[in-house]
Structures are given as structure tokens and as C-alpha cells.
Design a protein that fits this description.
The chain is an alpha/beta fold. Helix content is 35%, strand content 24%.
Length: 324
Amino acid sequence: MLYDIIKTKKIVNSDDIQESGESSMKIGIDLGGSHIAIGVVDSKGKILEKVEKRITQAEKKNIKKVIEDYIIEKTLNFLEQYPITEIGIAIPGTVKNQTIIKSVNLGLKDYMIVKKLQDKIKLPIKIRNDAKCAALAENTYGALKSYHRSIFLTLGTGIGGAVIIHNELLDTGDLPGCEFGHMLIEKNGNLCKCGKKGCWETYASMKAFKDNLREILDLDDRTSGKELLDMLRKMDKDHPKSMQTNKLIEQYIDYLSIGISNLMNIFEPEAIGIGGSFVFYEEIFLEKLKTKLVKDNLLFNERKEVIIQTAILDNDAGMIGAIL
């Protein structure tokens, strides 16, 4: 049985809205591979109110209608309550001007999303790659604001990324680039939704880890990421699946460290930021990942420590960055 989760959260009261500065409110939308989050964000990056919906496998068969209906409905509701000036949408995949050129995790291609939305929403709408939005948010307000050179990764349904140098995104010209999840780490490896084989995200995305964990524990996709994390926390060495689970965690860290070490060897960042649902599993993965990178001779230039910061804006980074 497929199911849908909708969350609504009001974060401030009317007095706080006045303090935020009414003229600078925008709507940030994070369109993920498996969810849609919509929030009202002020000029300081504070989310005043947000709603969130999980996209089910059944809904992905009619994904454009699901996206348009949900965004239009919730945005129009917010417009009745807040003086919104602009809308920004963070999108997984390649975007250009007002079009989603390709989003493999949503199954979209040449989708003129802005035109579709502006038939009902009469406000300026801008779109940008979701990982770059999250990177901008963490660089401006979050975990990376103290560094001059950083790499940001979003580990969720896929793997997205961005390079930031002196507060600017790396300029890759007409196309957004930095598709870190689609670098090859295995020749003739797992088939990726992009059509290639051996892409990093087929091994090291959080979706890949969760799917493999569900298979080991004989669970289906109704089991949420939070439920899986609770199971890992409670699992002891006497659990019949503990050996397989520990092996899966070590294997996941191996694959994750391959990609990150490649990026570090190319860009030599001061720090790595990681967002997406990885942040909820920090206690399971982070120290193992740091140790692997330092001690397993993966880096061309040796380091005594590797600075890896999990996103302090959690899964809201894309939503906040969409309005920057």
C-alpha cells in the first residue's frame, strides 16, 4: 500500500511577521525526488511557515499534475496570508531559464514549469538546481559561512552538489554542472536513471542505502527513513541481521568516501558540507566517514583531519536557498 505524508508547520505569530519586514517575504519551494516542501521565507533566511508533502510512487506516474496542483494550491493559500514578492524553486536536475531540461529522479524532461505555474500564480518565479540552492543557503546562513572554499553535497534520492569559492558558485557556463552524483565510480556498474552505468549516486545516495537496508530487514517502502533510523539505533550485536547491517554501513561509507575523496583531490576545499536526509543519520555515518578519508590513503595531499559539516538548516536548506 502506497501512502502520502503531508506536514504543515506554522513557525511564527503575527508579531514576528511584522519584525521580519513584510516587503521582503518570498516563497521558497524545494522540489525533491520524493517530496515537495513550500515555505514563506523572510530576508534573514527565517522560515515563517511551511508545508510538506511526500510524493508516492503512484503519483510519479502523473508527476507534472501532482507538482502543479500542490504548488498552486499551497502558494495561493500563502498569498492570502503574507505579502509575497517573489517565488524561488529548487529543482533536482538540470535547469535553464524557466525550463527543467532534465530531472532523472523525477522523470522530467524539457518541462516548462514556470509557464505552467504562472497561469495561476501571478508573481515572478525563478528556478535553480536544488543542490546549488542548498549550498547558497548553508554558505550564507549555515554550516559553511566561515569558509572561503567549500563543496556542498546533498545526499537524498540522488546526489547533487556545488562548489563555492569566496561566496560565489563555481561558474560552469550555460549548464549548471557539478553533477557529482553522475561521476562514474564503477565500470559497467549499476544502471542509473540517467542511462549510464556505475554512477556514484546509485551506490552512495541515501535512497540507495535505505533501499538496501529495507531489503536486508525484509521491509517495503512504506517504512520511512525515520523508522529505519530508529531500528538502527535499537539494533544490538545479538540482532539476527546485525552483521549484515554493519556490513552494509561499512560498504556505504566505502562508496561515499570514494566520491568525496575524488572531489577533495580536485578542488581542495577547506570544508565539505553535507545536506539532504544524510543529516538525520549523522550519528551512524559521520565519524566513520571522516576516519575513512584520513586513514585509508584516499587523499593525494594528506590531512590530519577532514572538516565535514552537516547542514544546520537540515532539509530546509533548498527551500531557503531557492529565494537567494
